[in-house]
UniProtKB/TrEMBL annotation:
This is Type-4 uracil-DNA glycosylase. GO terms for biological process: DNA repair. The keyword Lipoprotein does not apply. SUPFAM superfamilies: Uracil-DNA glycosylase-like (SSF52141). The keyword DNA damage applies. Keywords: 4Fe-4S, DNA damage, DNA repair, Hydrolase, Iron, Iron-sulfur, Metal-binding. Residues 32-192 form the Uracil-DNA glycosylase-like domain. Belongs to the uracil-DNA glycosylase (UDG) superfamily. Type 4 (UDGa) family. InterPro entries: UDG_Type-4/5 (IPR051536), Ura-DNA_glyco_family4 (IPR005273), Uracil-DNA_glycosylase-like (IPR005122), Uracil-DNA_glycosylase-like_sf (IPR036895). The lineage of its organism: Bacteria, Pseudomonadati, Pseudomonadota, Alphaproteobacteria, Hyphomicrobiales. PANTHER family: TYPE-4 URACIL-DNA GLYCOSYLASE, TYPE-5 URACIL-DNA GLYCOSYLASE.
Length: 198
């Protein structure tokens, strides 16, 4: 059996030509997960944004910068985790020349789980941290209320151990600096809790 890294590369190659849902039509490319093939912690976001779609890497845009800062404060090295998304294509609903991001729907999340499941079964993380409600629902297979369940270990579908926290882009959208600061501190706290629980 080839090493996890080799198998993940093979799955990424397969995912690169995924046409299981219509999102591939308006996206530049599949953005597969990346990081340490046998990471103890896996972080799962919602879907690639505009910059991730163009670059082909997860969390390289503004939300990624927030995540990088929060991870640094929590002592988490990006190279040592597996960082991925629930949906692997940018949902681009262009209006004229503008590339407009839209949230994936339930069907798109469900169809894309085929890739997330393979990432989980190859990386075999001790703990999977969902960033935001879309990832939380994809992983838990049930409705999740972030405010009630964040920061503690929950059982995910298929029995894995998981935690949920806010999505870094929700912090960016907060107009009040005080609220933004508090939300960032809460994200760091959750990341620290994930490190401890892994
Ligand atoms: N938001 C996400 O959920 N994932 C990314 O990769 C970028 C932004």
């Amino acid at each position: 059996m080839p090493a996890a890294a080799t198998q993940l590369k093979a799955v990424a190659k397969e995912a690169a030509s995924c046409t299981r849902c219509p999102l591939y039509r308006n996206a530049t490319q599949t953005v597969f997960g990346e990081g340490a093939a046998r990471a103890t912690i896996m972080l799962v976001g919602e879907q690639p944004g505009d910059q991730e779609d163009l670059a082909g890497h997860p969390f390289v845009g503004p939300a990624g910068k927030v995540l990088d800062r929060a991870m640094a404060e929590a002592g988490l090295d990006r190279k040592k985790v597996w960082l991925t998304n629930a949906v692997k294509h940018f949902k681009n609903e262009p209006r004229g020349k503008k590339r407009l991001h839209k949230r994936p729907n339930r069907y798109e999340v469900e169809v894309c789980r085929v890739w997330l499941r393979q990432e989980i079964s190859l990386v075999k993380p001790q703990l999977i941290l969902a960033l935001g409600v879309t990832a939380a629902i994809a992983l838990a297979g049930r409705p999740v209320v972030l405010s009630r369940e964040r920061g503690r270990v929950i059982e995910l579908e298929d029995g894995q151990r998981g935690m949920v926290t806010t999505h870094p882009s929700s912090i960016l959208r907060m107009p009040d600096p005080k609220a933004r600061h508090a939300a960032f501190a809460a994200l760091v706290k959750d990341l620290k809790a994930a490190v401890k629980a892994a």
